Amino acid sequence: MNAPENTDGRHCPFNKELCRGICIYANILENISLGLVLFDTKEKTVVFQNKTAIDMFEAISPKEYGTLSAILFPEGMDDIHVKNAPSQKTLRYGGRLLGYSVYTVSNRYLWILISDITEKARLEAVAQAANMMNNIGYIFFGIRHEIGNPLNSLKMALSVLQKNINLYSSEDILEFLDRALNEISRIEYLLKSLKSFNMFERLNICNVDMPSFMEKFLPLVKNDFEKRNIKIKTIFSPDVRYARVDPRTLQQVMLNIIINAYDALGDSERPEIGIRMLKKGNRILIDIMDNGCGMTWEQQRNLFRPFFTSKPKGTGLGLTLTKKMLAQMDGDISISSARNKGTTVTISIPEGHDVISETT
């Protein structure tokens, strides 16, 4: 078709042909379910705002630059360097949770793509709670068993001391008291482990002694694994000391992965889980390896997709949440697997340092 005479020589920015006056691309952008807003930061105007974006901000007059920019960029538009505009943000507006991404065009325009993620966030919160309750079962089982050991030892030490206190020297009495205090410390740690399941607490990033962390973490799952004859083997490199993480969140991450390995070992004749910890550059790598059923390529390709699961009662958000928790600690996760051969999950977290040696 020939272009109409009123094109004035204008060309479509998409297909580079002469503009015919009716733009199918504008119609598409106008009617898609994603909210679109285009700011001109130099002229301080809204160049484009589609119907979805107008509906999202129904209380605001269309193309109201000042109000829209104040809501989307509460830190102020004048402080935004267009080249370094934030890529992803969230906003609560009108009882809904909106997620939006910011893209730059030249040095003056900002494209904002907005979607309503209220339902997604709700489902994620429900799945996170379900995932946490599942892990709490493992924790309570382990704690019930582990608390029994130090309690018995504590009871025995105090009973012996009570019966022989007049016969023992001061040194012997102090030795019994030290033993009792050590057992109390073990119980304290186990009880503090329960605190790690408060999903509403903020992360407390600090320097964590990793050998000590593992020494305290493994007993929480060991008893349940031994009942199924699952062996846990550990290889910890001597140069691994401190990681900079939130210990409660790392414990939750480890539980998520260990439980997945546990489930994968259902039909294994000689079920085994290996945990390897090593240092690479300024990162600490933790490998969790199992010789279970493994995964197909299709399963691996969809591992981190929300709500994708191959488990009959799975939520499909376990690994998604795990990746999110690691990202909050500047960590990452990768998974390799082979069908009927097993799976290796690698956690990468930032290296920390010894606070005591730093201050001396």
Concise synopsis of the structure shown:
The chain is an alpha+beta fold and 360 residues long. It is built from eleven helices and twelve strands. The longest helix has 47 residues, at 118-164.
Please tag this protein with its features:
single chain, 360 residues, alpha+beta, 11 helices
Terminal-residue CA separation = 81 Å
Radius of gyration: 29 Å
Biggest sheet: strands side by side, in what order?
2-1-5-4-3
| Main sheet summary | 5 strands, antiparallel
Mean pLDDT value: 77
| Basic shape | elongated
Number of separate helices: 11
Q: What fraction, in percent, of the residue positions are helical?
A: 40-55%
Plain-language structure description:
By secondary structure, the protein is of the alpha+beta class. Helices cover 41% and strands 23% of the residues. It contains eleven helices and twelve strands. The protein has a five-stranded antiparallel sheet, sandwiched between helices. A five-stranded mixed sheet has the order 7-9-10-12-11, covered by helices on one side. A two-stranded antiparallel sheet has the order 6-8. Helix 4 (118-164) runs antiparallel to helix 5, helix 4 (118-164) crosses helix 7 and helix 8 (247-264) runs antiparallel to helix 10.
Topology diagram in text:
Elements: H1 24-31, E1 35-40, E2 45-49, H2 51-56, H3 65-72, E3 88-93, E4 96-105, E5 109-116, H4 118-164, H5 170-193, E6 206-209, H6 210-217, H7 219-227, E7 231-236, E8 242-245, H8 247-264, E9 272-280, E10 283-290, H9 297-301, H10 318-328, E11 332-338, E12 342-350, H11 355-359
Parallel strand pairs: 7-9
Antiparallel strand pairs: 1-2, 1-5, 3-4, 4-5, 6-8, 9-10, 10-12, 11-12
